[in-house]
Design a protein that fits this description.
The protein starts with a helix and ends in a 5-residue tail after the last strand. It has a five-stranded mixed sheet with strand order 1-2-5-4-3, with helices on one face. A five-stranded antiparallel sheet has the order 9-8-7-6-10. By secondary structure, it is of the alpha+beta class. Helix content is 17%, strand content 34%.
Protein backbone atom coordinates (compact mmCIF):
# COMPACT_ATOMS: atom_id res chain seq x y z
CA UNK A 1 0.00 0.00 0.00
CA UNK A 2 1.13 3.54 -0.71
CA UNK A 3 2.53 5.64 2.11
CA UNK A 4 0.25 8.30 3.59
CA UNK A 5 2.28 11.00 1.86
CA UNK A 6 1.78 9.27 -1.51
CA UNK A 7 -1.93 8.77 -0.80
CA UNK A 8 -2.27 12.47 -0.04
CA UNK A 9 -0.78 13.45 -3.40
CA UNK A 10 -3.26 11.17 -5.18
CA UNK A 11 -6.38 11.98 -3.17
CA UNK A 12 -6.09 15.75 -2.74
CA UNK A 13 -6.50 16.73 -6.44
CA UNK A 14 -9.68 14.64 -6.65
CA UNK A 15 -11.09 16.23 -3.50
CA UNK A 16 -10.30 19.71 -4.81
CA UNK A 17 -12.10 18.93 -8.09
CA UNK A 18 -15.27 18.61 -6.01
CA UNK A 19 -14.78 21.99 -4.35
CA UNK A 20 -13.78 20.39 -1.06
CA UNK A 21 -10.65 20.31 1.09
CA UNK A 22 -8.73 17.28 2.28
CA UNK A 23 -8.63 17.48 6.10
CA UNK A 24 -6.73 14.28 6.79
CA UNK A 25 -6.00 10.71 5.75
CA UNK A 26 -5.86 7.96 8.33
CA UNK A 27 -5.00 4.31 7.92
CA UNK A 28 -6.17 1.66 10.38
CA UNK A 29 -4.53 -1.72 10.10
CA UNK A 30 -6.82 -4.72 10.62
CA UNK A 31 -6.18 -6.81 13.71
CA UNK A 32 -6.70 -10.48 14.32
CA UNK A 33 -9.81 -10.15 16.44
CA UNK A 34 -13.15 -11.58 15.38
CA UNK A 35 -14.52 -8.26 14.18
CA UNK A 36 -11.71 -7.69 11.68
CA UNK A 37 -10.43 -11.18 10.89
CA UNK A 38 -9.65 -11.40 7.21
CA UNK A 39 -9.99 -7.66 6.85
CA UNK A 40 -7.24 -5.54 5.38
CA UNK A 41 -6.43 -1.95 6.15
CA UNK A 42 -9.13 0.71 6.45
CA UNK A 43 -8.22 3.97 4.72
CA UNK A 44 -10.22 6.92 6.04
CA UNK A 45 -10.46 10.04 3.91
CA UNK A 46 -11.68 13.08 5.86
CA UNK A 47 -13.18 16.01 3.96
CA UNK A 48 -14.21 19.53 4.87
CA UNK A 49 -16.06 22.09 2.81
CA UNK A 50 -14.13 25.08 1.52
CA UNK A 51 -15.78 27.50 3.94
CA UNK A 52 -14.57 25.66 7.05
CA UNK A 53 -11.53 23.88 5.72
CA UNK A 54 -7.99 24.09 6.94
CA UNK A 55 -5.71 25.43 4.25
CA UNK A 56 -3.96 22.76 2.26
CA UNK A 57 -0.49 21.73 3.34
CA UNK A 58 1.86 18.87 2.92
CA UNK A 59 0.89 15.76 4.93
CA UNK A 60 4.42 15.94 6.30
CA UNK A 61 2.96 18.50 8.71
CA UNK A 62 1.12 15.68 10.47
CA UNK A 63 2.47 15.14 13.97
CA UNK A 64 2.96 11.44 13.23
CA UNK A 65 2.53 11.24 9.43
CA UNK A 66 3.11 7.52 8.98
CA UNK A 67 1.77 6.27 12.31
CA UNK A 68 -0.98 3.73 11.81
CA UNK A 69 -4.17 4.38 13.74
CA UNK A 70 -5.27 1.97 16.43
CA UNK A 71 -7.72 -0.56 15.00
CA UNK A 72 -9.87 -0.10 18.09
CA UNK A 73 -10.62 3.52 17.17
CA UNK A 74 -14.19 3.79 15.90
CA UNK A 75 -14.61 6.72 13.56
CA UNK A 76 -18.31 5.98 13.03
CA UNK A 77 -19.49 6.46 16.62
CA UNK A 78 -21.37 9.70 15.91
CA UNK A 79 -22.43 9.22 12.31
CA UNK A 80 -24.74 7.40 10.00
CA UNK A 81 -23.19 5.51 7.14
CA UNK A 82 -24.12 3.94 3.85
CA UNK A 83 -22.36 0.75 2.80
CA UNK A 84 -21.48 0.85 -0.87
CA UNK A 85 -19.65 -2.36 -1.70
CA UNK A 86 -16.11 -2.08 -0.38
CA UNK A 87 -16.57 1.63 0.23
CA UNK A 88 -18.26 3.07 3.29
CA UNK A 89 -19.65 6.56 2.79
CA UNK A 90 -20.26 8.38 6.06
CA UNK A 91 -22.43 11.37 6.81
CA UNK A 92 -21.21 14.05 9.21
CA UNK A 93 -21.63 17.76 9.82
CA UNK A 94 -20.27 20.11 7.15
CA UNK A 95 -19.99 17.62 4.29
CA UNK A 96 -23.00 16.09 2.59
CA UNK A 97 -23.63 12.49 1.66
CA UNK A 98 -23.47 13.51 -2.00
CA UNK A 99 -20.04 15.08 -1.45
CA UNK A 100 -18.70 11.89 0.10
CA UNK A 101 -20.30 9.70 -2.54
CA UNK A 102 -18.80 11.69 -5.42
CA UNK A 103 -15.29 11.55 -3.97
CA UNK A 104 -15.62 7.86 -3.13
CA UNK A 105 -16.75 7.03 -6.67
CA UNK A 106 -13.92 9.01 -8.24
CA UNK A 107 -11.35 7.26 -6.06
CA UNK A 108 -12.90 3.87 -6.79
CA UNK A 109 -12.75 4.63 -10.52
CA UNK A 110 -9.02 5.29 -10.59
CA UNK A 111 -7.13 3.07 -13.02
CA UNK A 112 -4.59 2.36 -10.28
CA UNK A 113 -7.19 1.69 -7.60
CA UNK A 114 -5.97 -1.85 -6.85
CA UNK A 115 -2.42 -0.58 -6.56
CA UNK A 116 -3.39 2.32 -4.32
CA UNK A 117 -5.93 0.44 -2.19
CA UNK A 118 -4.99 -3.28 -2.20
CA UNK A 119 -7.47 -6.14 -2.07
CA UNK A 120 -9.38 -6.53 1.22
CA UNK A 121 -8.82 -2.89 2.15
CA UNK A 122 -11.82 -0.66 2.86
CA UNK A 123 -12.12 2.96 1.76
CA UNK A 124 -14.13 5.28 4.01
CA UNK A 125 -14.99 8.85 3.07
CA UNK A 126 -16.44 11.27 5.62
CA UNK A 127 -16.15 14.62 7.32
CA UNK A 128 -13.95 14.60 10.43
CA UNK A 129 -17.00 15.21 12.62
CA UNK A 130 -17.72 17.69 15.37
CA UNK A 131 -15.15 16.11 17.71
CA UNK A 132 -12.55 16.04 14.97
CA UNK A 133 -9.04 14.77 15.60
CA UNK A 134 -6.22 17.28 15.67
CA UNK A 135 -3.21 15.68 14.02
CA UNK A 136 -1.60 18.37 11.89
CA UNK A 137 -0.20 21.69 13.03
CA UNK A 138 -2.86 23.51 11.01
CA UNK A 139 -5.59 21.54 12.77
CA UNK A 140 -4.51 23.12 16.06
CA UNK A 141 -4.25 26.58 14.52
CA UNK A 142 -7.84 26.33 13.27
CA UNK A 143 -9.10 25.00 16.63
CA UNK A 144 -8.05 28.05 18.67
CA UNK A 145 -11.00 29.12 20.84
CA UNK A 146 -12.51 25.63 20.90
CA UNK A 147 -12.70 23.20 23.79
CA UNK A 148 -10.21 20.39 23.23
CA UNK A 149 -8.93 17.19 24.80
CA UNK A 150 -5.18 16.59 24.60
CA UNK A 151 -3.24 13.52 25.67
CA UNK A 152 0.42 14.38 26.08
CA UNK A 153 3.60 13.27 27.78
CA UNK A 154 4.52 15.45 30.75
CA UNK A 155 8.17 15.22 31.67
CA UNK A 156 7.63 16.45 35.23
CA UNK A 157 5.10 13.65 35.79
CA UNK A 158 7.13 11.09 33.84
CA UNK A 159 3.91 9.84 32.29
CA UNK A 160 1.14 10.61 29.84
CA UNK A 161 -1.89 12.58 30.95
CA UNK A 162 -5.07 13.80 29.29
CA UNK A 163 -5.99 17.44 29.85
CA UNK A 164 -9.11 19.28 28.73
CA UNK A 165 -9.73 22.95 28.27
CA UNK A 166 -10.06 25.83 25.84
CA UNK A 167 -7.29 26.12 23.28
CA UNK A 168 -6.02 29.68 23.71
CA UNK A 169 -3.12 29.70 21.32
CA UNK A 170 -1.32 27.51 18.82
CA UNK A 171 2.17 28.70 17.96
CA UNK A 172 2.78 26.69 14.83
CA UNK A 173 6.39 27.03 13.75
CA UNK A 174 7.34 23.80 11.95
CA UNK A 175 11.06 24.56 12.15
CA UNK A 176 10.86 24.75 15.94
CA UNK A 177 8.10 22.24 16.53
CA UNK A 178 5.59 24.68 18.00
CA UNK A 179 3.47 24.62 21.15
CA UNK A 180 -0.13 25.00 22.22
CA UNK A 181 -1.57 26.82 25.21
CA UNK A 182 -4.72 25.60 27.01
CA UNK A 183 -6.82 27.09 29.78
CA UNK A 184 -7.33 23.93 31.80
CA UNK A 185 -10.81 23.02 32.96
CA UNK A 186 -11.33 23.34 36.70
CA UNK A 187 -8.16 25.18 37.70
CA UNK A 188 -8.35 27.78 34.95
CA UNK A 189 -4.57 27.66 34.75
CA UNK A 190 -2.81 28.22 31.44
CA UNK A 191 -0.85 25.17 30.35
CA UNK A 192 1.79 25.08 27.63
CA UNK A 193 2.34 21.83 25.75
CA UNK A 194 4.98 21.25 23.10
CA UNK A 195 3.49 19.71 19.98
CA UNK A 196 6.29 17.16 20.05
CA UNK A 197 4.87 15.88 23.37
CA UNK A 198 1.30 15.49 22.07
CA UNK A 199 0.24 11.85 21.77
CA UNK A 200 -3.30 12.51 20.51
CA UNK A 201 -5.77 15.38 20.49
CA UNK A 202 -9.29 16.21 19.39
CA UNK A 203 -11.95 18.86 19.65
CA UNK A 204 -14.08 18.14 22.73
CA UNK A 205 -17.34 19.86 21.92
CA UNK A 206 -19.50 20.70 24.92
CA UNK A 207 -23.20 20.42 24.19
CA UNK A 208 -25.29 23.05 25.95
Amino acid sequence: MKSLVELWSIVEPIVREEGLELYDIERVMGSGNSSSRGRGAVVRIYLTNSASAVSSASPNATLNPDKEADASEDASADTGKVDSGDDVVKVRDGVTLDDCTRVSRKLSGLDRFDEIFPENSTLEVSSPGINRKLRREEHFARAVGEHVSVKAHFEDLAREKTVRGVLLRADVTPAQGGEIVLREDGSGAEMKIDLSDVVSARVDFIFA
